[in-house]
Amino acid sequence: MSRRKTPAAQAAPRCTVTVCRGCCCGTAKIPGVDHAAQLATLKADLGSIAQVRVVNCLDACEQGNVIVVQPSPQGRAAGGRPVWLGLVNDPDATADIATWVRQGGPGLAETPDILDLYEFSPSRRIRRAVED
């Protein structure tokens, strides 16, 4: 008997929210932030509609805490591309990210203007490591 999921049983494709934790992000090197609460909020708010994954280091330490929102396949088909957000160090920014992803994320929902303050472009080398 095969353990493969049939197409009907597979979950709908979703956004991926990558949360940097390790070297600098999510540590005492960024004081005054409840890092555990930030991650718990993202998992609670998005766990049923997006893949929330934690990585050790995205090599963009000067931007910590870093979160990357990758579009769903539908969002990518509509022109969405991964959005890198840095200095995400307050609960309001985390809530804004969660709201945007619930609305569809890159390619499917307009990026809230406030997130423009957090968006940055990492080097091509770093981008490839996460987005591929």
Protein topology:
Elements: E1 15-20, H1 35-46, E2 50-55, E3 67-70, H2 73-77, E4 83-85, H3 91-102, H4 124-131
Parallel strand pairs: 1-2
Antiparallel strand pairs: 1-3, 3-4
**Which structural category do the helix and sheet elements fall into?**
alpha+beta
The span between the termini is 32 Å
pLDDT averaged over residues? 88
| Shape category | globular
Strand order of the largest sheet: 2-1-3-4
Order of H and E elements: EHEEHEHH
Q: Fraction of residues in helices?
A: 25-40%
Largest sheet descriptor? 4 strands, mixed
| Helix count from the secondary structure assignment | 4
Strand residues, percent: 5-15%
The number of E-state strands comes to: 4
Residue stretches low in confidence (pLDDT < 50, at least 5 long) are 5-10
Radius of gyration, in angstroms, nearest whole number: 15 Å
Characteristics:
132 residues; alpha+beta; 4 strands; globular
Task: Summarize, please.
By secondary structure, the chain is of the alpha+beta class. The protein is built from 4 helices and 4 strands.
Task: Explain this structure.
- The protein has 132 residues and is α+β, with helices and mostly antiparallel strands.
- Helices cover 28% and strands 14% of the residues.
- It contains 4 helices and 4 strands.
- It has helices spanning 35-46, 73-77, 91-102, 124-131; strands spanning 15-20, 50-55, 67-70, 83-85.
- The protein has a 4-stranded mixed β-sheet with strand order 2-1-3-4, with helices on one face.
- Strand 1 (15-20), helix 1 (35-46) and strand 2 form a beta-alpha-beta unit.
- Helix 1 (35-46) packs parallel to helix 3 (91-102).
- The longest helix is centred in the N-terminal third of the chain and has 12 residues, at 35-46.
- It is globular and about 40 Å long.
- The protein starts with 14 loop residues before the first strand and ends with a helix.
- The model is unreliable at 5-10 (pLDDT under 50).
